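[Automated response] Your request has been received and processed.

Submitted sequence:
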Amino acid sequence: MTDSGIGDTDAGTDPVVPRLAATVERLHNQIRQAQATADGRALIEMAKGVLVERLHCGPAQAATQLEILSARAGVEPLELAVDLVNQAAQDKMSAVVGEFLQATATPPSGPTAVVRLRTAESGLLAAGDTQRVAESVLEHAVSPLGATAVAIWSAGIDASLSLAGFAGIAGHEAQRWRYVPPGVVTPARQALIQRAAQWIDDLSVSGLPSIGDRAGGRAAIPVGAAGKILGVLEVCWPRPIDVQPRQIHRQLEALAELCAHTLESDSAAVRTTERADVADLVRLADGLFDPALVLIPQLDEGTLADFSIHHLNSCFVDPAGRPPGLISGASLLEMYPMAAVEGQLFERIEHVFATGETYRADRVMLTELVDQIPLTVAAALSISRYGDAVLMVWRIEDESGRLATLLQHAQRLGRVGGFEENAATGEITWSEQLFALYGLAPTTDPVPLAQLPGHVHDADTEAVRRFLRTLLRYRRSASTACRLTRADGVTRHVRIIAEPVVDAAGHLHAIRGAYQDVSAQHWTEIALSATRDRLTDTEMRAAEQSSLARQLQQAIMPDAQPSTDAFGLRIAVRYRPTEQDELVGGDWYDTIVLPSKEILVSVGDITGHGITAATGMVVLRNA
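Generated structure:
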């Protein structure tokens, strides 16, 4: 034997390799066919059980009866089995199938849809893990709808998402998306937080990142059970999709409910551990300095109805004055019915329990009935989910807290910053406004009062030293105004007020006071002073021009006395200018005895007032 046969193959390729690849592909097909056959066999076995119950016969007789009925009806045994299961179940899946059949125009598609949905259900229930569930959903349920990929996400207690199963998606792409931390906005995240299905016509237009291709239609349906979102079912289409009919929406919602069964099974051990950790959560609540409640969900036929108050810590005080023993173990809505008001406490707790998203607010208004009278208080509130329990912590805003908040707003509006300097230790406390006034970061060390002369304008150094001398040497309150020069070159005009804190013996303990940024007031005063100067100058110029115009007018106007008397004609004039000198105008008149013994009388007016009108009057009169 020789090895020439191997060397003669094209490009040196071993013929065993394609033979092995074909064998692997054939085995994969056989496995898929076996899985589909197993799913169908499970439906047939369920149909046999229905016949056993209804006909009161044995399994062998039920199998024979199923074959006889399918032959008479002219349908496959699998289709008849699905029909029997639908009639016996009367569940949501049956309702979805009925809606689909009513909306389908062509009769042959009806049985195919029935078999497809029930086969998908059988495959999901028989699957051992979420990965097999994703493959079954794609193969039996959504592939006939044009979808090419499926992803099943598991929701964490911190509102994160983990990829629990996928189909139609490359392995390296699934590895990249194995974990989505909280805060990353994706279609699955929106479905989780909003607790509603998200339909996206074209992912590339929406701008949202997600697993798989970046284009095409997407549907993200929350997978929930017992009031808690366990995960999200995401279905991918290769091209943009049109608005889908209600029947398709209902089908995917029913598939999401089936996925919840597997997600619950996968996390059973985790949930058992979480329930055991409720004791740790109780110990955590007892270690807090604020009132806290540990709440456990109450279910009504699988639906979240209320929360039971599992534990309340030692800081808890009931607004109505009821003892803690009366509240512990009771339901939340029984003890605090006002929590159910829309937008109130219960809605926030329900959202946190469903999504795992922590709720925090510095100030919310909480209302409760005290002797049938609504009492509203402001409080800081925190709600978090730990497994199957919810921890609620709050801090009522008391009078001192309200005054502190009011003082902060007053300091912000007045641009005032407070300080206190310990004379013994040198410790300095600044408010936030002082760091901003000096142009310093809040993490830097405050500037001691003794170093203030080095931070002001040279012309203000002596005034600041007198201020410090009065304050530190003579132990008296003092104030000064100066220009604060910052490291960034900005100059701020400030007013400083301070007082010494001394004991009965006169020993200095501390210096406390405040800075006020009066830069805006300073520049406003300068602008007003400049405006006043300009107005005074304008008034003086106007008075001078009016006086000049008045003098010019009086110089060229004829004397009123004596009046003209010639040839038996007597002419007299009376001229009275306006009372406002600045409105002296161009009015003029004159009488002249001509050489021809005729008399010329002239009267005129120039439009306008002031020196311009007066000079124009002179020109016209002379003409």
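Summary generated for your ticket: Residues 553-622 form one domain. The mean pLDDT is 77.
If you did not submit this request, please reply to this message.
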